[in-house]
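Prompt: For my understanding, could you write out one protein's sequence and C-alpha cells?
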Amino acid sequence: MIWPIFSNLYFSIAFIAFIVFIDLLVKFKNAPDLKFYFLLLTFSIGMVGLINALYAIDYVFFVSIFKSLFVFSTLNILATLYFPKHKYWTFGFSFLVLGFSVLFMLVNNKFISSNPILAIFLVQSVDSHLNIEMNPALTLMRFLIITIVTLHVLFFWYVVYNKSNLNNIYFAKIKHWTSYIVVLMVFMLIANIAITFSDNRPFWVNCITIFVLFSVLLFVLKRPVFINKSAKKLALGHKFNQEVDIKIDEIHFNLYFKEQRYYTKNEASLEDFAGVLKVKPSILSQFVLDKYDLSFNDLINKYRVNYFFEIVQDAAYQNYTIDALAKLAGFNSRQHLNKPFKKFHGGNPSDLLTTSISTS
C-alpha cells in the first residue's frame, strides 16, 4: 500500500516544482546564467517527480539524466555564486557526471549496442515501481560519483566559511543557506551507504529521494532575496566588505527621506542621498534592500506614487492636471509616472483622478 503514497508524494513534488519554476521566472531579475541553473534545477526535480508519479517505465532510465541535471545545476549554482574564476572546472566535472548518466540511459534503452566495456552500465532488472537493481560495479561507480560530488560541495562550504573574516555582507547572509545544501549532500552520501546494506532498499531509496527533492525545492524558495537582484555581487569578494564603522541612522533616514519628502526632489538618486546621510552608496543600497526589499530607485518611485495618490485626494489640488501632480510627486512628467504607478498601485493615474473627481 506504500506505493500509491509514494506516487502522490512524487506528484506533489512535480506540482511544487512547477510553482517554484514560475517563482524563479518572475522574481529573478539579473544574472541570466544563474537564473538558468536555478530553472534547470527546478525543472529536473519536476521531471523526476512526474516520471515516478506516473510510474512511466518507458522513461525510467531518463530519471538518471534528470538526477544528474539536478547535480549539474547545484554545483554550477554554487560555483557561479562563490567561485566564478573556477566555474569552468566545475562545469567540466558536472558535465562528465551528466555524460555518465546519458551513457547509462543510451545503453539500457538499447539506443547504442552494448559491448564488454559498456556492459557495466547494464542494470539487472527494473520492476513496475521503477526500482532499479544495479550490478555491483555500477553500484560502486554511482557511489564514487556521489562521494566526489559531496566532497566538491564540502570544499565550497569550507572556502566560504574561511572567507568569514572579510565580514562580507553577502557572505554573512548566505552562510546558513549554503550549510543547508551541504548538510543535505552529506545526508545523501551517508544514506546511500546505509541503504546498500538494507533488506528493503527500494523503500528507502524512494524515501530518501522524496525527502531530498522536497528539501531542495524549499532550498530554492528560501534563497536569500538579494540573489534575485544582485547575485553577481557575491563573487566580488572584498569589494563588498561591510563597513562596520559606518552605520545608517534610521531616524535620520526617515527624517530626510520621508518627513522632508526627499523622494519628491527631481534630482533624487542613490548617490545624492548617500551624500546627504554621509555614507557610501553601497552601504545605503544594502540598507534599503535589507529593510524594504527594494532597490533605492524603486523605493523612491514607490513613495512618489503614494504621495501622488495622497495629493490627488486633497481638495487643494483638484484643479491640477495629472502632469502637474506627477511633477509635484517628483516625476519628470506624466509619462514617467505611468510605469511606477502600475507597478505599485495598479491601473492608470487618469482612472484615479477621474474617481477622485466623481466622489468630490
The chain has two domains: 2-223, 250-359. Residues 231-246 have pLDDT under 50 and may be disordered.
